[in-house]
Protein 1
Amino acid sequence: MLRLLKTVVSVGLITALIWSVDWTEIYSHVHQFNPALALTATVLLCVQYPVSAWKWQQALTLHGVDYSFGYLLRILCIAFFFNNFLPTAIGGDAYRAYRTFKHADRPAYPISAIILERVLGLIVLVAFGYLAAVVLVSSDALPYKNILMLVSIAGVVALIVLLAAWKFGLLTKVGNRLRNVRKLEPLIESLRVIRTNRRHLWGLIGMSIVFQVIAILAITLLFAALALPGKFFESGFTAAAAGVAGVIPLSINGIGIVEGSFAVAAILANLPYAEAVIVALFIRVFGLLSSILFGILYLFERGAASASSQEGSA
């Protein structure tokens, strides 16, 4: 039932977006479309997959789990196919964890690596979105100066409270209590490993920054291909909004919710609605087509595993 509900939400939102676009207006601007910029953006979207695998490798290495880059890239691509097409409760992240349990000292390490990679990626994306909002507000391109000021003040206050809690030992007391909770032992152990391998942590943060810069550049080039050049900060703002919305588990892999939030954020950043919908749909279609190719890769891998199993039994 949950899968059916997510499917209905995804199809409904995508249909509403497509229906709301004035396609006659789009057709009138077809001659302005720049295929070279769109192709460059597509190349950048392709580059995201190896960069994502590299991020994952850094997160696993941080936990003392070693796998080759080629192996992780293949598993990552198959996991992406799982997220988009397979009608199963096993998501792509669960598949990634399952395929990296073998070389881990503890079962919690592969899971912790994926969670850490996801959380850091989201933090970096939100940071980019905040910086983009500051730039846009400063140039009067985004008319939400008071809201941004309140968010900034709230962030500073939260940081001060956190530093004060650390200074007076409150965080240490909370940590000691949590260590006595047996169910949290895997989490505490993962946090200990992360703290003792900060060099790899900085590498993971660096790769997360590279990944998000590539994503924002791809969106910027897609807008430029639709005769909207120089929209890097607007693209960063919309990408952050879409990324945060994609965390909401109400549709299949964020389909519909991501595109809708992308379009709304684009309007707030003074970008044309129709062009924003086209960019969002372009990225989604690219992802779905990539998933089909990755599904073929999965079938070949399954076929090879089956053949090896039959040879072993013979």
Protein 2
Amino acid sequence: MPKDNGVVLTGPLLGRLDDLIPIPHTEVVDEVAICLPLSAQEAIDEIVRLCEDEGRIVRIRVAVLERTLSCGRMEEIDGLPIPSIVSGPDRVVGLAAKRALDIAGSAFLLLVLSPLLALLPFLVRLDSEGGVLFRQERVGLHGRPFQVIK
């Protein structure tokens, strides 16, 4: 784990302060934690503005925070109180409802369509030469290849 001034980083280090603008467009970033000294207030304000514009959650050390939180909440990370500025709506309830609907809908459709799904491989085999399944390489997130079986 990288160490800097006695602070242990538990997540990946994606870049330095100058890399902040391109990183959310090349990596999957949901939250940004700002742990800069008070003397970097101008940089902190710029980072907060960029993150709010991008809809990212921002976490700031309490000692640094001088502005009023209009849309934030206090959380604790590794024993330190951290106010979080959430630009968008709280997604926990919406994501949980969507997940429940996805599972229920998938289970229902799988039950209803299972006779047809069981019959399809035989129909494909009667109509086509070769196997019913085939393997294909696809390009995923950030150009990373992966295999799919169809």
